[in-house]
Structures are given as structure tokens and as C-alpha cells.
Amino acid sequence: MLADDSPVMVKARELCAAITEDSRYLELQQQVEKFLDDDSAKLMYQSVHERGSELQQKQRAGVELGAAEISEFESAREELLNNPVARDFLDAQGELETVQRAIGKYVGMTLELGRVPTADDFAEADSGCCGGGGGGGCGC
């Protein structure tokens, strides 16, 4: 199945080509590139990301966060989200991750079910029945 010329790998390359040729994907890539070219937006993003990680580590360690440091973080985060380049990057990143998860879920369910999943299969998985990993009283 994984041989370079196998039908599965040929279709995988076709899927990848379809993604990279999609107009929405091209727009998202432009937003990412615009962000990567904007040193100010990147620095702002990095600063907020690092500060958020520090605060999470403190919380996990049981340290109570002070109102001032929470306020400072929220202010920096708001400033980041008010930057159109950074905001577009975050939106693009989220949308690309959603596409990646959806395609992964589709392929994963295909391998699990041994057939192409239907809309009902996805609905069942999302409701927690059988394929959703919990049984959930669905007669599984």
C-alpha cells in the first residue's frame, strides 16, 4: 500500500495536489506568509505564547496567579488579537488544523470501518456511540 506507485499513494498525492490548488488553501497560505514576513507580529505572538505557557506552568505547579499578571497577559493577548496580521495568522492556523483533523478522521474511520464512512458514521462517532470510543449506550 505504501509503495510510491501504489493506488493508495497515487491518490494521496492527488489529494495533496487538490489541497494545494484549492483557492481557500492559497488564501490561508498567504495569511501565514504575511505573518512570517511581519517581525512585529511574530514577536508579539511569541511573547504572548511564552507568557501563556509560563502562566500555565505556574497553575499546574499550584501557584496562584496574581490579578496583575493575569491582567497583563489578557492585555497583551487582546493587543495580539487586534493586530490584523496576527489575527489572520491565528485564524488561518486554526482553519488549516481543522482541515488536517477532518482528513485524518476520515482516513482513520476508513481504516477502522473497512469502508468509506458515511455521514451517519461521523454522526455516531461525534455522539460518542461505538466509533466515538465510549459505547454510550448505543447497543455496542
From TrEMBL:
Superkingdom to which the source organism belongs: Bacteria
Alphabetized InterPro entries for the sequence: Com_YlbF, YheA/YmcA-like_dom_sf
Protein name, entry field: YlbF family regulator
The organism of origin for this protein: Haloferula helveola
